[in-house]
Specification:
Blueprint (H helix, E strand, L loop, with lengths): L5 E5 L2 H29 L5 H22 L2 E5 L3 E6 L2 E6 L3 E7 L22 E3 L4 E4 L6 E14 L3 E11 L3 H10 L4 E2 L6 H7 L19 E12 L2 E12 L3 E6 L5 H8 L7 E6 L2 E2 L4 H7 E4 L11 H11 L4 H14 L15 H13 L5 E5 L7 H16 L3 E5 L3 H7 L2 E6 L2 E6 L1 H7 L7 H13 L14
Parallel strand pairs: 5-10, 7-9, 13-18, 13-19, 16-17, 17-18
Antiparallel strand pairs: 1-2, 2-3, 3-4, 5-8, 6-7, 8-9, 11-12, 11-14, 14-15, 19-20
Helix pairs in contact: 1-2, 4-8, 7-8, 7-9
Bound molecules: adenosine-5'-triphosphate.
Pfam family, one: ABC_tran
Protein name: ABC transporter ATP-binding protein
InterPro entries: AAA+_ATPase, ABC_transporter-like_ATP-bd, ABC_Transporter_VariousFunc, P-loop_NTPase
Length: 477
């Protein structure tokens, strides 16, 4: 067992022991009658076979019954492995959008309400009403795990099922949630708080800062870009660009017009094949495992691609359908985003009547419908009025605090400085600087230098006098 492996159990023997003994007595009683009956009617030499077979059957039944009562789940850096009796399910960590604690099954507890399930279940149960798989040896000490994509498995009685939430009962839900959080999964500690929708809709609207950079040191690498190159004929739009972005980190991506920002973002999003180099999202190669990666990525292009003859609300539903989100969850997320981005007043208007700012907000909402773990934003605040720009900045900061990695291409230096943990400056397709504001200042002209001065010095230097530091001279993580 690796050191990073954590095991979580459900071990409530007291309540199940009675059922176990009663079940065993009933089983043995039926067995005894059947074996005795068969022994009377079968000829002599077969009697031993019948008795032996009957006993073996009893033993098997007993093991089955006790097996059902065993439940243990293990968590490591890559997956959550669920075991409930003979049932097994591996949930890749990358598919977990968030988790929350629930101490009761009282009606009104929203997404994790289990009041209509008739008591503990001896095998996993799928409930279509809330699109959840329940693994409940008990109805207390519950944890709800929200998934960013639909998972499938086969369960006894119900056969193949698809779900986007798993509800577990555990001996120590607190330590399970703490372990998940330690692996970068957003965790909502409050009991019965109604899930992501309420979290998004009711979030504070002040511009709270993102998490400190130091606090992200142990976070998993959400995005790894390695020596990315894009050539068009003899010209290279991107020349060997490498960077790593951690979960919860915001990296501002700056560069002059034509520097290669959009080309880089399109390659990361899997929309443009690189000439060479690799991109990995939460450990998955963008080209080898494109389907999985698309469910983890949200991309807002510089020119939003929208269906002009749909309303904003309809467009969000359409996008949810493309990601295979369950209807109820999709509608809840659409409403939460429409509210969070103050779009309610025009949510039912045709997109073709929208201003550029309204279109950008619609594109952002669409990119967030499937709870991406990595968000690529290309000029997302362009064309937004100050209030809308503030809303978008606050939302990005909130998503980062919840563990989303954000790569933000922008020309707005104030947005970069106010929001990002680190800033990457690209010029002529090459990274010429990357680091926190302090690191960029240290490598440049002094502690009082503005980002604008740093940007102008670096980008001018590449085309002219050559006084700016090269990438390898600038501190980067
Ligand atoms: N399809 C293409 N064919 C040839 N050259 C291209 C193509 N697409 C982009 N380029 C070139 O690649 C370079 C980088 O373009 P890109 O759009 O990535 O820049 P950018 O940094 O996003 O610019 P801006 O800030 O103006 O949006 C530019 O020189 C552009 O002309």
């Amino acid at each position: 067992m690796g050191s990073s492996l954590r095991r979580f159990s459900y071990d409530k023997k007291a309540s199940s022991l009675r059922g176990l003994i009663l079940g065993l007595v009933a089983l043995l009683g039926v067995d005894a009658i059947v074996i005795a009956g068969l022994a009377l009617i079968v000829p002599g030499p077969w009697k031993m076979v019948v008795v032996g077979g009957g006993l073996a059957l009893s033993g098997w039944g007993y093991l089955l019954l006790t097996g059902v009562l065993r439940t243990h789940h293990t968590l490591d850096e890559g997956s959550l492995r669920l075991a409930y009796g003979r049932f097994r399910l591996v949930v890749p960590l990358g598919t977990i959008a968030g988790a929350r604690h629930q101490t009761s099954d009282a009606p009104g507890d929203g997404a994790t309400r289990v009041g209509r399930l008739s008591g503990p279940t001896l095998e996993p149960v799928y409930r279509p009403e809330d699109d959840a798989l329940y693994i409940l040896p008990d109805r207390h000490r519950l944890v709800a795990v929200d998934l960013s994509q639909t998972l499938r498995c086969r369960i006894p009685k119900q056969g193949p099922v698809e779900f986007t939430r798993i509800v577990l009962s555990l001996d120590e839900p607190e330590s399970f949630l703490a372990a998940l959080e330690g692996l970068g999964v957003p965790v909502e500690a409050a009991a019965g708080s109604g899930g992501r929708r309420r979290r998004l809709a009711g979030a504070p609207r002040s511009q709270a800062p993102v998490q400190a950079l130091d606090a992200l040191a142990g976070a998993p690498a959400a995005l790894e870009v390695h020596r990315l190159v894009k050539r068009y004929g003899d010209d290279a739009a991107v020349r060997g660009l490498s960077l790593v972005l951690r979960s919860g980190e915001v990296l501002a991506f700056l560069g002059s017009n034509g520097a290669g920002k959009t080309t880089t973002l399109r390659m990361i999003a899997g929309l443009l094949r690189p000439t060479s180099g690799r991109v990995r999202v939460l450990g998955r190669d963008v080209w080898d495992r494109g389907r999985e990666v698309r469910r983890l990525l949200g991309y807002v292009p510089d020119v939003p691609f929208l269906h002009e003859w749909l309303t904003a609300r309809e467009f969000l539903w359409l996008v949810a359908g493309l990601y295979g989100l369950p209807r109820t969850a999709a509608r809840q997320q659409a409403e939460a985003l429409l509210e969070r981005l103050s779009m309610e007043s025009y949510a039912d208007q045709l997109i073709r009547t929208f201003s550029l700012g309204m279109k950008r907000k619609t594109a952002l909402a669409a990119a967030l419908m499937h709870h991406p773990k990595v968000l690529l934003l290309d000029e997302v605040t362009n064309g937004l009025d100050p209030r809308a720009a503030r809303e978008v900045r606050d939302l990005v900061a909130q998503l980062a605090r919840e563990g989303t990695a954000v790569l933000l291409a922008t020309h707005h230096l104030d947005v970069a400085e106010g929001l990002a943990h680190r800033i990457a400056i690209i010029d002529g397709g090459s990274l010429c600087a990357m680091g926190s504001m302090d690191e960029l200042r240290q490598s440049g002209q002094g502690p009082d230098t503005s980002l604008e001065e740093i940007f102008l010095a670096l980008t001018t230097a590449r085309g002219g006098a050559g006084t700016g530091p090269r990438a390898e001279e600038v501190p980067s993580r």
